[in-house]
Amino acid sequence: MADIKDVARQAGVSISTVSRVINGSKAVSDELKMRVESAINELGYRANSVAQGLKASKTNKIAIIITSVSRTFFTSVIEGANEVAERLGYSLLIAETHDKLDREIELIESFVSQWVDGIILASSAYAHDARTLQYIQRLESLEKKGRRIPVITLEYAMDSRYIDAVVIDYEKAAYDATSYLLKLGRRKIAHISLPKNHRIGRMRIAGFERAHEEFGVPYDPSHIIAGDYTTYSGYQVARNLIEEKHDIDAIFCANDQMAVGAIKACEELEVPVPEQIAIVGNDDIFAASIVSPSLTSISVPKYEMGAAAMRRMHEILQEDAAKHLRQIITLSTAFEERESTLKTAKHSLKYLEW
Amino acid sequence: MADIKDVARQAGVSISTVSRVINGSKAVSDELKMRVESAINELGYRANSVAQGLKASKTNKIAIIITSVSRTFFTSVIEGANEVAERLGYSLLIAETHDKLDREIELIESFVSQWVDGIILASSAYAHDARTLQYIQRLESLEKKGRRIPVITLEYAMDSRYIDAVVIDYEKAAYDATSYLLKLGRRKIAHISLPKNHRIGRMRIAGFERAHEEFGVPYDPSHIIAGDYTTYSGYQVARNLIEEKHDIDAIFCANDQMAVGAIKACEELEVPVPEQIAIVGNDDIFAASIVSPSLTSISVPKYEMGAAAMRRMHEILQEDAAKHLRQIITLSTAFEERESTLKTAKHSLKYLEW
DNA sequence: AAACGACTTGCAAACGTTTTCCTGTTGGCT
DNA sequence: AGCCAACAGGAAAACGTTTGCAAGTCGTTT
Lengths: 354, 354
Fold this sequence. Notes:
The structure is a homodimer. By secondary structure, chain A is an alpha/beta fold. Chain A folds into 3 domains: 44 residues, lambda repressor-like DNA-binding domains (434 Repressor (Amino-terminal Domain), Orthogonal Bundle); 144 residues, Response regulator (Rossmann fold), CATH 3.40.50.2300; 131 residues, 3-Layer(aba) Sandwich (Rossmann fold), CATH 3.40.50.2300. Chain A is built from 13 helices and 12 strands. In chain A, strand 6, helix 9 and strand 7 form a beta-alpha-beta unit. The radius of gyration of chain A is 26 Å and the shape is elongated. The first copy, chain A, starts with a helix and ends in an 18-residue tail after the last strand. The C terminus of chain A is likely disordered. Chains A and B meet through helix 4, helix 5, strand 2, helix 6 and helix 10 of A and helix 4, helix 5, strand 2, helix 6 and helix 10 of B. The first copy, chain A, binds a DNA duplex through helix 2 and helix 4.
């Protein structure tokens, strides 16, 4: 692969001149400029961005840490982030933690040593352990030689004056969904929640409870049952609820996978949905549109979250490091009403995204 | 962020010694080694991999080019590739073409200038244009300074003596699926194929035809109809076939999205599946398990494709560039029988992957 | 006792850029 | 015609590593 010296030799100029032509950083006479440009074309030269990175202390790479690419949530986030990244001239580095906290800090360290320009941390819905937080905060204080690696978290905001975040008001979304069921006249609503301690799970429970309180409808705390994200767990919990003759007329699920499981349980036990039990999911994954009955769900602007994080990252990188002021961007959810709560709800296959 | 000079100063040694301690490349006395190690810990030093990359002409980054992360096929490929990459110490760079050939060559050029160690090209199911092929072949001839960037294509093999590939025998998979339907006694099988020219689409058609020939069953060429990947197109084609009273008893679809559309069309027109029309999809995406009736589908080892490509990439990078001998790795498909062809077929929700 | 080998360490070059500093040339103004 | 400013272009330093080479210190062998 040709380097800048080859180009300089071919064009009969110094490497400084070649660099200037490429970057337009200083005037070069038309004569030389032409010679350089044709040399570049002949050799198919492109500047080595590793060397550029070393010189500029800047790699134009942004890392995004997720738990797994196979979770559709992250897939959309990545898409949003990548779309914006491409437009702004960054490359995206992706890494998965598979929910291991150790792995997370390891990845962050590795990205730091790779000199990525910034890190989008979309992985930890659980609380971080102290080490991660400490490490990340250290990143913010890297003022030496003007280097610093901004971190933006997704879905939740760290307790820090420095780390930006893009979040969703999950409490409100759960509140809205619960209110919606209450307005439909449902009075015995069960909630299949996320595993204990999951902070988003807790926000959903809070919204669920607040809606009941504000509507003056009592609820049975034993009807808030933790699932483990999976379809099968939703299936099991719902099946138990029904078989043990708990008196319920709606199930609000903390994700769509579990909601699909609940639908399957009702189907097997011949409980009509939505007539006897209405079901609401969370996340509006693709499958929500194609199960039968189709699933009413809360739609999280996943793509937009990734895009917003990347836009914000760019802003931060542009501004003076010393002036950085933390910002928390809150995005809202949408509500997709489908057949699992309203028999006549219609939706079109036409615009499905896979 | 501390650099190697800081460590050297702190430990009172030269930077060469620090480097040797880090890499274990040459014996260092215990005394100095200890001093260096504690300096490293105190400063939280990690070698800058940009500088290392420049020195070694090697970045330990592998790029993977796909059409879109939102397609579950690629998601699984990425997972397989990433799993192996992590184990072998590579980072993964991801880029999307969104099916634009121009974008593809642009991305390859950009990755070359970023000095990635290798490129996995999973994007182009359509034929590449001449430019891309030409460019990629140029990559293979980069012997100067021992640099060369191996390319591995996924799903199809280029007409080149140099470019490795990981492929699927789609013709055989389609043959098997069609034979299966014929053995079930179906005699009027329609095929919703991919857009013209799509090479994988053509392989599926070939398998479809070969099965008919070998079974001595004639088929109606007008029942091979191109869809455009989408659920909606599957829906439309199936709906037309039924409404126009074409005499069919099975539909073999070139992907699951279209198969789901076909199922929805049958549902709307009250054609029982599988009693009147059996439906087989391709790819075994997640949704195949949860539609009702669940969808019989050909399962492509997506994860394994990514993993195999990455393993092969590692092999190539280890071997002597001059000795490189192209290899084409062919993986086989599995067949998932479900309710859309056999009413009593059962599958469990338990092990669903999302 | 002299010489040689083994081992440890440091110096400096190199990787491919960008950019500062400097020199030489041109052109405009008086 | 003489000066100065403006400009074009080259040489060289710098970014953070790794590594070949030289030099120094031992210990061992003849």
